Amino acid sequence: FCLLQQCLGTHEVSCDLYMVASSTEPQPQAKGEKTPISDTSYVGIDAILEQMRRKAMKQGFEFNVMVVGQSGLGKSTLMNTLFKSKVSRKSVQPNVEERIPKTVEIKSVSHDVEEKGVRMKLTVIDTPGFGDQINNENCWQPIMKFINDQYETYLQEEININRKKRIPDTRVHCCIYFIPPTGHCLRPLDVEFMRHLSKVVNIVPVIAKADTLTLEERDSFKKTIREELRANGIDVYPQKEFDEDAEDRMINDKIREMIPFAVVGSDQEYQVNGKRILGRKTKWGTIEVENIAHCEFAYLRDLLIRTHMQNIKDITCSIHYETYRVRRLNESNILFTSNPPDHPAVQPKANGQPEEQPATPQPNGVAAQHEALSHEM
Amino acid sequence: MASSDVARQPDKGVRSLSLAGHVGFDSLPDQLVNKSICQGFCFNILCIGETGIGKSTLMDTLFNTNFENFESSHFEPQVKLRAQTYDLQESNVRLRLTVVNTVGFGDQMNKQESYQPVVDYIDRQFESYLQEELKIKRSLHNYHDSRVHACLYFISPSGHSLKSLDLVTMKKLDSKVNIIPVIAKADTISKSELHKFKIKIMSELVSNGVQIYQFPLDDETVAKVNTTMNGHLPFAVVGSTEEVAVGNKMVKARQYPWGVVQVENENHCDFVKLREMLICVNMEDLREQTHTRHYELYRRCKLEELGFKDTDSECKPVSLQQTYEAKRQEFLVELQKREDEMRQMFVQRVKEKEAELKDAERELQGRFEQLKRLHAEEKAALEEKKRLLDEDQSSFGKRKAAAQLLQAQSLTANGKKDKDRKKKNDG
């Protein structure tokens, strides 16, 4: 069964480094089958995949997605389309007086969804009021603060002595940024927001209400956006630097060619060619949401949910969160002491222990004289 | 290992939604599995047992390979542990397996401290994981997890009961590692004896409060098989890497004049059960238990030992950082104090030495004076003597001169006298 076997180093007493190659063919077995007696080479290591799958199904998953964009861009509709259920309540038109919130609010709503035995706790974080005021300077700050607060909560729980078996994960895994379909270029607000937030969270930019753009307009808009992102040094998901290997890079390059996705959302079903599909019905035709000839919703859905969801979560956990943690722990160190140590290690060992001064006195020549005299004697 | 922990139960305040169509997140477990395949798995087994009981052979048989172990001597002065790491692959799963064997266990005359190296090894692995977790710049997903996931304890097939060494060792280890006891060389015990032996062992373990690893029962798919297997503990195993022809097949077996013990025959021994439980069904659970139970316990104890608390004396939550900083300040203050003390001591010793040396100097000075005086006195005496001598000499000289003169005078006088006499005589 073992294609390749290598003995690596040791930690303890005595062991040598050597390689052993076995020439038996790999014989994968399905779980549950009794091993036939003639096959003496099956061990069963690959059953761990099944064990992992079982464990994951039992535990369930969590996914936290934030939607950011001006009001009226179709954020809630898109979320509902993505997850095929009413995960976001569309903002009901409030009274004229309370129309525009004074600051950016953060509203987080969680739902339990289940599909084919896989349970997921989906949290959609809405940001009403973003970009809606007259003066939008620093409107990303409440959002940045919210994201960092989630990291902080997780960090605090993680460094507790008595910590929970499974730390509840409220960290924002993905932030979908809605670009209004002007067809020209990114606005300063867009650039500022993405520049600040691409460093702390995975940003997936989308062109909202893309049914107002023709295909040529859409392509040129996308190209302009990509160039502007590059010019401003904004790294959106999937980030180039986190590609793991050549295969990854290939897949991600294809995606990077397509972002930002031009999406259309809808929660209404219509009859088209005998099938009921989600779409928007207009006088000049019906736009089919899941038809890739019409809009790129399907690509977005595949990226976000079907292929890269785990990867998105991993990047949040192992890169964005770790960056936050490093910064936070270093900050506390600098706050309290003048020289930050290398790590807040468990053992506060003496790095700065004063060296033992030599006990031999160095008096001012008495000894020398003493010696001279003794020699004379 | 999945680095993002997820909620076990749906939260109370969270609504359930039903989906109107296929969304597609049912591929999440597959995504997770694919990621793990890329990363590879790691599993660490610790085998404790007396020398020659068959640990290495069993490992070879379990993983169907030759790990190339050599026989250890029986004369080790102390128990040691030998760890070897291997990369194994089966279909698309890569496993980094570490097998740790005890060397010299049970061989010493005095076995009181036999368990200590094992406990130390396990603690060391926890410690290095803890250190990595507490680092500022850490890379947990790349970290080679060396914590012991499963401990196979090999019981000698005496047929009677557990040895006290076994009980003591297992008691020390049960809160640190998942213990799976196995009866080694089970082909030396008959079926009825085996049955009694197993019951005796389990009752002894229970009455001594030793917590061995129970196969988990919370997942319906494997609960049934695990319950059955829990009833078969400890597994009576036989290991062999040699193949013997039985019928028209080659099987792993041990050949005796009176018959052939087939390793993978469930009627002959529990080897297949062990392999099934250890690898095929519960490997992931073993890893999870190690991480969530044993490691957390270690971490909690270690941090509490060092004085970190979650809440301070007024029961307000205290962050680890604050506690650490407070301790650090304390430590620095103490360091300062020690430094001052040392400096004071140093100054004092310098003073003392100086005083000592001054005394010595004074003494020497005194002696010098004294000697000088003596020398002067002697010199004076000598001068005196010299003077006397000179005087003597001079007086002698004078007398000599006087005598000579006298002689000369007397000569001339004599001559004169002679002359006179002559004259007289003449005359």
TrEMBL record, chain A:
Main localization, broad class: cytoplasm
Q: Where does this protein reside within or beyond the cell?
A: Cytoplasm, Cytoskeleton
Residue span of region Disordered: 336-377
Q: Name one GO molecular function term.
A: GTP binding
Per UniProt, the keywords (alphabetical) are: Cell cycle, Cell division, Cytoplasm, Cytoskeleton, GTP-binding, Nucleotide-binding
Question: Domain Septin-type G: where?
Answer: 59-331
> Which CDD domains does this UniProt record tie to the protein?
CDC_Septin
**What do the Gene Ontology cellular component annotations say?**
cytoskeleton
Q: Which family does it belong to?
A: Belongs to the TRAFAC class TrmE-Era-EngA-EngB-Septin-like GTPase superfamily. Septin GTPase family.
> What protein does this entry describe?
Septin
UniProtKB/TrEMBL annotation, chain B:
Q: What is this protein called?
A: Septin
Gene designation per UniProt: SEPTIN10
- Cited SUPFAM superfamilies: P-loop containing nucleoside triphosphate hydrolases
Q: What Gene Ontology molecular-function terms does this entry list?
A: GTP binding
- Would you identify the family this protein belongs to, as annotated? Belongs to the TRAFAC class TrmE-Era-EngA-EngB-Septin-like GTPase superfamily. Septin GTPase family.
Pfam families from the xrefs?
A: Septin
Which residues does UniProt call coiled coil? 343-392
What region holds the Septin-type G domain? 39-305
Taxonomically, which superkingdom?
A: Eukaryota
Start and end residues of each stretch annotated as Disordered: 407-427
- Where is there biased composition of kind Basic and acidic residues? 415-427
Q: Which UniProt keywords apply?
A: Coiled coil, GTP-binding, Nucleotide-binding
